């Protein structure tokens, strides 16, 4: 008889703020196990990042605003919906790049604004190295895309950049989040909802998520170690 998700992977969902959404969809759970597996090669890993991003992104976009439009079907005239929000996708380089195509499939008219942040391995603090945002916000709803929410330093820095830019509605879309990262982001930015595929147990002493999947950028791009 199939049972609940094995507990070692799961952080304690008790006490999560209502702005934090952790998916329990069986399709996501199945794909996550493959994504975590150390034997999964970069090609398959990229496919899984794309597929899980689609599913989490679908949930994150559930409250995007639409307006009514007339539609003529072969049978009669009816009323349909057209996306009213201008959506901005903000992938955090590098690892967030793998989430963009899935989100563009969902929202083909979205704008994509790249933000380059890497985490200093020694201090675990984010370092900004690329930012091509125009002077003022050009979208109504920003989705920050990053597979990993670890200490929350990168996500918090990205949210601060977007708020300075003038973004008002911001959501964070992750694949795997650590409790430490969720606490840091919700403390600094309680207005920013977090959507993730999994809430993991904890960080290790090097700031890696346990059980996690290792380094999401390296695993997508075949550039190094597993964690
Ligand atoms: C990873 C990940 C996040 C960040 C999360 O990026 O993609 O951006 O670490 O860690 P944090 O929550 O502690 O800030 P990394 O710095 O490894 O860069 P990369 O995507 O270029 O590999
Ligand atoms: N960044 C990653 O890619 N993986 C982790 O576990 C933590 C930060």
Small-molecule binders here are: 1-O-pyrophosphono-5-O-phosphono-alpha-D-ribofuranose, uracil
Q: Any guess at the CATH architecture?
A: 3-Layer(aba) Sandwich
Please, how many domains? 1
Unreliable segments of 5+ consecutive residues: 3-8
How would the global form be characterised? Answer: globular
Overall pLDDT metric: 93
- What is the overall number of helices? 6
Q: What is the CA-based Rg, rounded?
A: 18 Å
Biggest sheet overview = 9 strands, mixed
Question: What is the string of SSEs from the N terminus onward?
Answer: EHHEEEHEEEEEHEHEEEH
CATH class: Alpha Beta
Structural class: alpha/beta
**Beta strand count:** 13
Give the termini distance in whole angstroms.
33 Å
- The CATH topology assignment is Rossmann fold
- Portion in beta strands: 25-35%
As a percent range, the share of helical residues equals 25-40%
Describe the fold and architecture.
There is one protein chain. This protein is α/β, with parallel strands linked by helices and 227 residues long. The chain has one domain (20-221): 3-Layer(aba) Sandwich (Rossmann fold), CATH 3.40.50. 29% of the residues lie in helices and 28% in strands. The protein is built from six helices and 13 strands. The strands form three sheets. Strands 1, 4, 5, 6, 7, 8, 9, 10 and 11 form a nine-stranded mixed β-sheet that branches. Helix 1 runs antiparallel to helix 2 and helix 2 packs across helix 3. The longest helix has 19 residues, at 42-60. The radius of gyration is 18 Å and the shape is globular. Mean pLDDT is 93; it is low at 3-8. The structure holds 1-O-pyrophosphono-5-O-phosphono-alpha-D-ribofuranose (PRP) and uracil.
